[in-house]
Design a protein that fits this description.
This protein is α/β, with parallel strands linked by helices and 453 residues long. It folds into 2 domains: 235 residues, Alpha-Beta Horseshoe (pyruvate-formate lyase- activating enzyme); 94 residues, Orthogonal Bundle (Arc Repressor Mutant, subunit A), CATH 1.10.10. Helix content is 35%, strand content 21%. A hairpin with a 2-residue loop joins strand 11 and strand 12. Helix 7 packs parallel to helix 8. It is globular. The protein binds iron/sulfur cluster. The site of iron/sulfur cluster has 11 residues, from loops.
């Protein structure tokens, strides 16, 4: 008999806990300023810089980004980004050491090479960037120029994440993203030539007109270029919230069963090609940092997904950027105009956030281990946080229902998700989410979770 009830189709991806939807205006620029001033001076930090511009709209994309053919808005935004870097660096106790930098978007590779080099130089003036720092950037192979690849190498970028999604021309047409294998291969080659040697591909399954065969062919073509990592995301069709997606022909979307087959076929093909599965949706070669982090129990989850980054502090720059400080989370103004206005007025652009409680921290730690390892030693995590497991009684009740339905096994508080139910990991994580009271899934619906965000 099924005891758990399906009450809520949309769960967070639990990149962070609490989810962004729980952020509030109770944390604003004033709190962030105080948190920055109290940062430990010698702890390395990570930096995230958000660049929300693209040249054309992909119809599946849910990221807020400005489509522009002109460079002027990008240059204008870069000026604000530099001002924000200055504002933040003036508020921290001393020049902070940095071990990880990520440029995300949008398409940050649209910044011209000279401007990118100048931005990196400015960061080096304001922060003590380690010689061994990981410097990563998201790239659209369709717009990457050889000059930009050279500029990235010269600026010290050593990791690039390339949007690929599907190599099938029929699927590409259905999502308005025409990108040949040759374009992607040329981008990989020119990046590697300029010492941007660690490469990630983003792939998507569940797209319109996508089939198991086309997924497998895409993976075979991708594997031939030997990226170090691949992220495999399920397309999430929510046209009521994402305007672009109204252009997608919904009648050609694969159903839940077809999506599950596509995911399984991609996973099998990647594993046969020598990649290791990392968490829910990543694959990596055995010598990649993610695979090594997983092997040694150091895999982390942050606002960008799975990570080997061990920094406790992430400083976010740019519109909508999320930061994490010991005391909690902050997010900048989401719209570009509003972000620029705040920075131009000489103030931090923090619009909302969340101050972490002791209870949040212990729940976040448990959820992170579940999302990374599909298991968590709940009593040990509670002890490490000086918390009494009895305070998680609400979670115990929800877990008991999941155990009764054969989704998890529980032994002396150690929770392990059964292999066949790994797609349902977010439902298990939700058992510890105090902001989602009573969210539960029946096993048959776990595969359908691939389609939710
Ligand atoms: S998928 Fe990437 S390139 Fe396409 S619109 Fe979204 S952010 Fe821009």
């Amino acid at each position: 008999m099924q005891t758990t009830k399906f009450r809520e189709a949309r769960l967070p991806w639990y990149t962070i806990y609490p989810a962004v939807s729980e952020f509030s205006g109770a944390v604003g620029a004033e709190a962030y300023e105080e948190w920055l001033r109290n940062l430990p001076a010698d702890d390395p930090v990570s930096l995230y810089l958000h660049v929300p511009f693209c040249r054309s709209a992909c119809w599946y994309c849910g990221f807020p980004t400005t489509i522009t053919r002109r460079d002027a808005p990008i240059l204008n935004y870069l000026a604000a980004l530099r001002d924000e870097i200055r504002l933040v660096s003036e508020r921290v106790p001393k020049t902070l050491p940095v071990s990880d930098i990520h440029f995300g978007g949008g398409t940050p590779s649209l910044i011209g090479p000279a401007e990118f080099l100048a931005l990196m130089e400015f960061l080096r003036c304001r922060f003590a960037i380690s010689k061994t720092a990981t410097v990563a950037i998201e790239i659209d192979p369709r717009t990457l120029t050889p000059e930009m690849a050279e500029g990235l190498g010269a600026a010290g970028v050593n990791r690039a994440s390339l949007g690929v999604q599907s190599f099938d021309p029929i699927v590409q047409k259905a999502i308005n993203r025409i990108q040949s294998e040759a374009q992607t291969s040329a981008a990989v080659e020119v990046l590697r030539r300029h010492r941007v040697s660690r490469i990630n591909f983003d792939l998507i399954y569940g797209l319109p007109r996508q089939t198991v065969e086309s997924c497998v062919e895409t993976v075979r073509a991708a594997v031939a270029m030997r990226p170090d990592r691949l992220a495999l995301f399920g397309y999430s069709h929510i046209p009521s919230q994402v305007k672009n997606q109204r252009l997608i022909e919904a009648e050609f979307l694969p159903d839940s069963a077809a999506r599950a087959e596509q995911y399984a076929a991609v996973a099998v093909t990647l594993i046969a090609a020598g990649y290791r599965q990392i968490g829910l949706d990543h694959f990596a070669l055995p010598d990649d940092e993610l695979a090594l982090a997983q092997e040694t129990g150091r895999l982390r989850r942050n606002s960008l997904g799975y990570s080997a980054d061990t920094c406790r502090t992430l400083i976010g720059f740019g519109a909508s950027a999320i930061g994490r400080i010991g005391q909690g989370y902050v997010q900048n103004e989401v719209t570009r105009d509003s972000y620029i206005q705040h920075i131009a007025a000489g103030r931090l652009a923090t619009s909302k956030g969340h101050r972490l409680t002791d209870d949040d921290r212990v729940r976040a730690a448990i959820i992170e281990r579940l999302m990374c390892d599909f298991e968590a030693d709940v009593p040990a995590i509670c002890v490490a946080h000086g918390s009494d497991p009895i305070r998680l009684r609400d979670s115990a009740e929800r877990l008991a229902m999941l155990a009764k339905d054969g989704i998890v096994d529980i032994e002396n508080g150690f929770v392990r998700v059964r292999r066949e139910h790994r797609f349902g990991i977010r439902a298990v994580a939700a058992a510890f989410d105090v902001f989602r009271d009573g969210v539960m899934y029946i096993p048959q619906q776990l595969n359908a979770m691939q389609s939710t965000t």
